Amino acid sequence: MNNTEVKEQQPAPDFTLPAVGDDTIVKNGQVHLADLHGKTVVLYFYPKDDTPGCTAEACSFRDADHEMQKRGIVVLGVSADDIASHQKFAEKYGLSFPLLADTDTTISQLYGVWKEKNMYGRKYLGVNRETFLIDKNGIMRKIWHKVKAEGHAQEVLNTIESLGL
How do residues 47-60 score in pLDDT, each as one tens digit? Predict the structure, then answer.
């Protein structure tokens, strides 16, 4: 397991992943981070499609997406679920931003969010709920670890405003 430490004020690791969603961002069924150079990107990792916390978080980004788009901000959601699962999740909740399928967890490991978790005494590996704010030059401006799903999108918007991005 790769324990890459992504740090603020350093370049965001580049990647390409299969995706569903906004055709202005998803090209040929995938998103390449380098193609978004010149835009502020909110890259959020979440554990699983259509679970309570992940649905609350996705819906908060959906509800804030109009405001983000107005400011030229791109929201990308990433989990280890496959494209079919993402498509169903996006349609069920009217998600307007791309969902990226990191089915082999390479990007989750690259960003250091693939971690050991513990539920009911059972240890397993999974995606940790974390968010990365990447500026127009591809520099990591803010990282949120241990994200609380409710109201997170507003917290991200407030940070973008305070940083002048």
Answer: 999 998 899 999 99
Is the pTM above the cut of 0.70?
Answer: yes
Which of the residues 12, 42, 54, 107 is marked catalytic? 54
φ/ψ region of 21 (left if φ > 0, alpha if ψ in -120 to 50, else beta) reads left
CATH code of the domain occupying 16-163: 3.40.30.10
Those residues with Cβ within 8 angstroms of residue 122's Cβ, 6 or more apart along the chain or in another chain? none
Can you say how many angstroms the Cα of residue 61 is from the centroid of all Cα atoms in its chain? 10
Domain boundaries, the chain: 16-163
Looking at 11-139, which runs of residues are DSSP E strands?
Answer: 16-20, 30-32, 40-45, 73-79, 99-101, 114-119, 122-127, 130-134
Two structure tokens written together for 132: 């990365």
Residues 86-110 have pLDDT tens digits of 999 999 999 989 999 999 999 999 9
Give the DSSP H or E segment for 155: helix 152-163
Q: Catalytic site residue 54?
A: yes
Phi-psi region of 70 (alpha: psi -120 to 50; beta: other; left: phi over 0): alpha
Please give the Cα distance from 27 to 11 (Å, whole number): 23
Instruction: Name the most confidently modeled range: 66-75, 97-106, 147-156.
Output: 97-106
